[in-house]
Write a structure and sequence with these properties.
The structure is a single chain. This protein is an alpha+beta fold. The chain folds into three domains: 118 residues, 2-Layer Sandwich (Beta-Lactamase), CATH 3.30.450.20; 78 residues; 156 residues, Histidine kinase-like ATPase, C-terminal domain (Heat Shock Protein 90), CATH 3.30.565. It has eleven helices and twelve strands. The strands form three sheets. The chain has a five-stranded antiparallel sheet with strand order 2-1-5-4-3. A five-stranded mixed sheet has the order 7-9-10-12-11. A hairpin with a 2-residue loop joins strand 9 and strand 10. Helix 6 packs antiparallel against helix 7 and helix 9 runs antiparallel to helix 11. It is elongated. 23% of the residues are buried. Bound molecules: adenosine-5'-diphosphate and magnesium ion (MG). It comes from Roseateles subflavus. InterPro entries: HATPase_C_sf, HATPase_dom, His_kinase_dom, HisK_dim/P_dom, HisK_dim/P_sf, Sig_transdc_His_kin-like_C. Keywords: ATP-binding, Kinase, Nucleotide-binding, Phosphoprotein, Transferase, Two-component regulatory system. This is histidine kinase. Its EC number is 2.7.13.3.
Length: 363
């Protein structure tokens, strides 16, 4: 018929997409559907290819309009939201989708992309979160630099003052005050250093095996909590190595495992605390603004009380802590490290089960 008959390879490539795609004739007749669309519609592509696309969508007229406009070259692509009827059967729940109609190389053929709306909004949300995290990080970094400079001056002046006061009568008494100033300046200095830390060290890139990272973290945490804590492994050993900074990744995982162990304190005392390190392969994942064919997931699960709901949405932000004496920097650092590996961390938590998921793209 047309270009597509000469390019079956190109059509097969469409089957690898997670997005639903169809090629339609300008008169609305379906020419080809990819595997993702076939699955959602629960009909074979042979059946679908004999149907009219208007019939699949709740808003068939809107589609007609889009197809006309795009094929007349009034606009090169058109986007709208509607519902996709599945199975062409009335009892099946319709799927909210965003439809994009665009031109192809061939004047008679149009490309129809259907993106599930839930996926769309999740992606939007993730992008927004990433932007926000970026902005917060910059703010913190600037603030930290602003604090760092005068801090050196304050500490130096307090030291000089202490020296001046030493030989005087009041010296021993006032030394207490200068000590407080110096001690607090040091504490602030170390906080500022930790705020700036993730940006300071250059990455050391090599081949990383995720299970080596897990094993290392496991032995570190078991050394810290020798009694009452079980750390179970559930590894998919088929996962390949990838390029990354091994030490940084150990740090990222360790921060999460340490939080879990801290949250598990009462269970550790009772002897039934459990952390699970689970690795899995994931396909066709979107991380930030990029799409990857293959990724690994490392789940760090614990049977503790869960993340306090009032801070759940903010735990990756700096200085957010639900713990007495916590710095609120652990998860920020872990997230930064994951992002430096093009990955990300998210968290799903309820009382009795908390799951931190690190997703990292694979080659
Ligand atoms: N596995 C977990 N279970 C319950 N709460 C958690 C867990 N992991 C993190 N949190 C919460 O997230 C907060 C932030 O963690 P983090 O950034 O490491 O800072 P910090 O540990 O210094 O408080 C913790 O204080 C805790 O309230
Ligand atoms: Mg922590």
């Amino acid at each position: 018929m047309t270009a597509i008959d000469q390019d079956p390879e190109g059509l097969r490539a469409l089957d690898m997409l997670a997005t639903m795609v169809a090629l339609v004739h300008r008169d609305g007749a379906c020419v080809h559907v990819n595997a993702a669309l076939e699955t959602q519609m629960q009909l074979s592509r042979r059946v679908l290819a004999r149907s009219h696309v208007q019939d699949w969508l709740e808003d068939g007229a809107r589609l007609r309009e889009a197809i006309d406009g795009v094929s007349r070259n009034a606009y090169s692509s058109s986007r709208f939201e509607t519902l996709l009827r599945r199975g062409l059967r009335p009892h099946e729940e319709a799927l909210p989708v965003q439809v994009i109609v665009s031109q192809t190389d061939s004047p008679d053929l149009l490309l129809l992309e259907l993106i599930e709306n839930a996926q769309q909004s999740r992606q939007d949300r993730e992008e927004r979160t990433l932007d926000q995290v970026q902005a917060t990080k910059e703010l913190i970094r600037n603030l930290a630099h602003e604090i760092k400079n005068p801090l050196g001056g304050i500490r130096g002046a307090a030291q000089l003052l202490a020296l001046e006061l030493q030989p005087t009568e009041l010296g021993p008494e006032l030394a207490e005050y200068t000590d407080v100033i110096i001690h607090e300046a040091d504490r602030l200095q170390s906080l500022v250093d930790r705020l700036l830390a993730p940006h300071r060290r250059a990455q050391v890139v090599g081949d990383v095996n995720i299970h080596e990272v897990c094993e290392r973290v496991r032995s570190l945490i078991l050394a810290e909590y020798p009694k009452g804590l079980k750390v179970r492994r559930d590894y998919d050993t088929s996962l390949p190595d990838f390029r990354g900074d091994r030490e940084q990744l150990i740090q990222a995982v360790l921060n999460i495992v340490q939080n879990a162990a801290q949250a598990l304190a009462p269970r550790i005392a009772a002897g039934d605390a459990e952390i699970v390190l689970r690795t899995r392969v994931a396909r066709q994942v979107t991380l930030g603004k990029q799409r990857w064919r293959l990724a690994l997931e490392l789940h760090i699960e614990d049977n503790g009380p869960g993340v306090p709901p009032e801070i759940h949405d903010r735990i990756f932000y700096p200085l957010v802590s639900g713990r007495e004496g916590g710095s609120g920097l652990g998860l920020t650092l872990s997230q930064t490290i994951a992002q430096q590996h093009q990955g990300m961390i998210d968290c799903d938590s309820e009382p009795g089960r908390t799951d931190f998921r690190i997703t990292l793209p694979l080659p």
